[in-house]
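Case 450 in the screening queue. Each case pairs one protein sequence with one candidate compound; here the compound is heme C. For every case the pipeline is the same: read the inputs, emit a complex structure as tokens, and attach any notable structural observations.

Predict complex for case 450.
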Amino acid sequence: MYYPFFDVPKIGGGMLIAVVAILHVVVAHFAVGAGIFTAVAETFARRRNDTLLLRFLQDNSRFLILFAFILGAVSGVGIWFTIALVSPRATSNLIHCFVWGWAIEWVFFAVEIVAGYCYYYTWRTVSPGRHLAIGWIYAVAAFASLFVINGIITFMLTTGRFFEERAAGNYDAAFWAGFFNETFWPSLVLRTLSCLALAGIFVCIVVNLSRRYTREERTRIINYGAYCLAPFALMAPVSIWYFNNVPEASRRMAGGGAIAMTLFLAFGVACSVMIGAYAYFALIRKKRYVSLETSLLLAAMALVATGAMEFVREGIRKPYVIQGHLWSNGIVDDPAEYEPLMRAGILSNIPWIVDPKDAAVADSKTRGDWVFRAQCIQCHTVDGVNGIRHLVNYDRDIIRNDIEYLHVRKTFMPPFVGTEREKADLAEYLYSLNYSARDRGYRMPNEDPE
Ligand code: HEC
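Case 450 output:
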């Protein structure tokens, strides 16, 4: 019933996924946004016979292939690799719930990549009309792949009526209910804004990296790019729309319940509004020029904004990987699953961590370490990100009590699943980590002298 996961030192598995995923999201969003920008800009340039813009689009398409396709493909495989190792059960669940969704997404992705390469290599070899058509195929396929993946990713936070339909045996209806869930549309708009903004910023970077443009030419191209960038300011109202559709508990977390999430959200929205306002007032209205350094600064801000929003989306889902269904620790939130585990014990069900026979005879602290690996390591490291050591500076009884009420004390933790003995084992292990009080020679009131 479980699958193995691996232990990532210091930063923990969740943070590893976050790093790889944010890199991938930025690159993939850029690829989609650049597709839309390129198709629209080429249409516009052909109509007006704007040779400067055409020359730039050709340069930009090389950059698109080198940067987006290669980095995008590598980081995309990276995501599958990390999620399958850190959250194997969730990965498997998502694949099973949306088999055809993934298949459709991969077809669009393949079309996007093939069209992208054709677009780059046929600038001089096919007629303008054909070339433009290839550009539009690229843009539509890229956006379609975003459309499909958006349904699957938003499902993790808002599941629509998926589980009700599935329980009733309506599998087709379940697919669509889960796909077009509560946050599908606001999230699609948010992502599209981010795609366009990234494409707009890359226009500024690419034009500055090439020596072939005069200052006036650069300014003109950058002012075109700004039309992609200005809508980024709409992140603020669209985020409100989005958060009106997330579950109550998640909204509370974003709205102050988990202060880290609130701050990330605030930084993300602030960055987007500043970039959008700058694009509108400075670039579109005043037709200003942007240097390479400023473009890189804008790119860094857009990275922070996109990364922060992704982080919030992942964070406010806790304690679930799939809202209301699967906890982060890979156990299903259903008594039919966790009650037997509570009776038999978690240690007899995690063969990839420990052989149940060894678990039966090990000392309490070692058993506790295994329990920790089974149920806590998805969100805690020992000393690094969300390190447990400084959270358990208490005596055994208090730690034991904490374990009993994990999900009550912090609603973003799943409840502990295991036997009374395993709770004591985990408490023993966590107690062995605790340092400062004892280092300073204190004894807790009811602590045994050691
Ligand atoms: C879904 C992610 C997740 C899982 C799984 C998880 N925790 Fe946590 N836990 C957190 C977060 C986030 C915090 C908040 C840390 C902070 O406030 O600095 C936290 C805080 C705590 C605290 C401090 C509570 C307090 O009131 O200050 C303890 C103790 C703790 N966790 C123990 C555990 C143990 C033991 C396990 C495994 C049985 C576990 N956690 C599993 C996410 C998780």
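Case 450 observations:
- The pocket of heme C is lined by residues 318-319, 328-329, 375-376, 378-380, 386, 388, 391-392, 402-403, 406, 409-410, 412-414, 416, 426 (CB under 6 Å).
- The chain has a mean pLDDT of 91.
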